[in-house]
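Appendix B. Raw example, untouched.
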Amino acid sequence: MGMARLLTANEQYADALRTLGAAYQRLPDDLAITHALARLLAGSPDMSLRDAKKAGPLAFSVYKAQPKLGHATTAAMALGESGKCYEAANLLENAIRRQPQQIQKQFGDQVQSIIDYYSEAEPCRNPPIL
């Protein structure tokens, strides 16, 4: 994970993707690795590396295991990358409602701006990041 972060910080996205892919092959049940891989596949700044078909199942498996707001955001990114803008907005609307009140207060405005983006943008491949 540390190597992938370093590679991403240095804009070496293909190398970060390979590193995360290798880590996932070794530790497929590690939710942090799976989430990082899904997020990079769904929202890499290098759009040629994006792969919604791979990102979606990974992102949803993490979100199902841990329905946290950040995991919902990654699942929405995978939907957006697939062109499923309405579904992405709907997922985030439902996810924010299920969060504790403190999380809703802290991140509600940011999440609403992402929901608005998915509701209004076509294509919806580059949402604001939470």
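End of appendix B.
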